[in-house]
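2024-03-11 09:14:02 INFO receiving multi-entity request
2024-03-11 09:14:02 INFO entity count = two
2024-03-11 09:14:03 INFO echoing inputs for audit
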Amino acid sequence: MPPESGHYYFNHGISALFEMPTSDARKLLPRHLQPLEVQHERSVLSVTAFDFYKGDGGVYEELVLAILVPPLVKAGERLPKAALYPFIVGTSTERGRKQGIDRWKLPHLMRDIDVKFREGDGSLTAEVSADGEPILDLTVTSHDFEATSILYHSFVSDADGNFKSDLLMRGDGYCEHEFERGSLTVYAHEMTEGLTIDEIAEVPFREQWMRQGIEIFHELEAV
Amino acid sequence: MSNGTPEQPRKGNMFSDESGDQLPMAMQYDYTNFYFGTGDDAFGMLDPFGDWWKESKPGGYYLYGLPMQGAPMSRVDIRNTKTGEIHKDLLNFASYNYLGLSYRPEVKQAVIDAVNLYGNGASGSPILSGSLEVHHQLADRLAAFKNKEAVLLFPTGYSVNLGVIAGLMRSGDLIVADQYAHASIVDGMILSKATSRFFRHNKVEDLERKLKRYNGKKLVIVEGVYSMDGDVAKLPEIVECCKRYGARIMIDEAHSTFIYGKNGLGVVEHFDLDDEVDIHIGTFSKSLGGQGGYLAGSQVLIDYLRGFSRSRFFSCGLSPVVAAGILRALEIFEAEPELRTKLWQNVEYMQASLRNAGISVGDSESQVIPIMIGDDARAFEIGEALMHAGIYLNPVKYPAVPKHKSRFRMSISAAHSQEELDEGVRIIANVLERYGICPQNQDTITSTTG
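2024-03-11 09:21:47 INFO inference complete, emitting structure
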């Protein structure tokens, strides 16, 4: 049976949140969005890596760099856990990239990236590069895994306007913690342009790891 | 997980998932979910917040701000705002009052005498008519105790950090604070408009990273004892780093003055670094059992900030009644060094007893002891159980502390008897056992909702 439209199935989805300068975040965001600050002048860089095995984009790996922004909280609608503005996405295949651009208007690096997942003792590392040039290394560590369903808001903007999609993450095993055991190394690269690398925290204040999950995009709506 | 099952964006209400199942609101959401709203009405967030609060408050948030029926002694009566019941004779490990001075008969008499002399309030800004003789007596006595040229009094501990930081630092300057710095420090940084950075808690190498890439005026801010974890600033390394990069140092000793050091001067005295620190902040609400804050330093620093500390300038002066009580408490503190001896005996006894019982107290080395429970989802439930078992302790859960680091913040006082400490350990161990948080094996702590 073919997968549902807007569904992306993955073995591992790892994500971590890092403090970054608000001045950088403001430059990366469209004018209608404000960065969410965890501390005065410190916004949040979200780094996420997936290995998709089935779905609209087929089999591919993906790296998403995003800024955390306030969700659209409305009376009567389910409260999202958080909201993101992905400012650059990298994919390992053209098919994955094309559907991400055509359907979800996500800004992409226009060439393939290479994501190597390396599982350690209670950790998973994603080493991301393109044409042999390193982009970043992300390590996330585990805690207690449990089944979960999480709603996010994902914002995008292009020449046609500003949009939001409800993004539902469901997984058989999900863990989230703030034990500050993971790490991030960011390299100077086209994907990391706009980030003051020295000012990005090397240790995440939150780590998330989902196993055997689905990422479900709901249709874009204008905001 | 329903791999292969069609997923549609069904929507229940805001507190249910896509299948309509109700989520545990007190656990699933918190105040941070209601920081931003949509629309143009400044009250637009109140309706969704009100819906959440109505169900969440009885679920555990009611545990905050429960009315105490008398003085914050080692045993207290507390009114349960959910049931209306008065919980009698609870062991009090929630109040600061580290030396038991707030209700000493001599302090109460000083307060009564001050009421008869001054009335209730200061009735003016301290730079205008709101400076009364008792304020000068307290400032002079405190300056002598702190071995500093002068002291500036503030109406609250919050206002002293706000006023000093924003009064001294300017746009274009750099302030670097420990990431666990108190909200009043952070708010002072915001108000100053200086460039603000935070270094990882007590990680001097991260502080150095922040300092070395900046030229210009620099201020580093740390606390003596950190209020959520009870650990102590690594002051020797921090001072050395600050000197190397030409940064001034400010220390907030709200939880360490009158407790640490040979004479109770604080962590600066403990490390023999009193003269190496430029700005000394403290409060009267912790060890002296009063209210207010102070800055101690050179005369010229005090004279300068008297004019630039807007949080003091534009507030009514500290109540003379409170000032008289603090002055008397300070006199007792200086006359009775055995109070500190007793406090430290209690701290060491309680730290050892809790650890021996297998209860995690983190890195605490002070009278502030976090009882780590880890389980964010059941922090309130355990808080209720502790109250019903005979202990008054406040839960601290995410987002006030990181996820999976929920805790009860325990304050030890010189006023606690050894029997009360023993009883406290026994009750806490029993309650944690009952909730499956086996004191002998902290690895078994699990979270039910994340």
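2024-03-11 09:21:48 INFO post-check: The helical segments of chain A are 22-28, 94-104.
2024-03-11 09:21:48 INFO post-check: The two ends of chain A are 34 Å apart (CA to CA).
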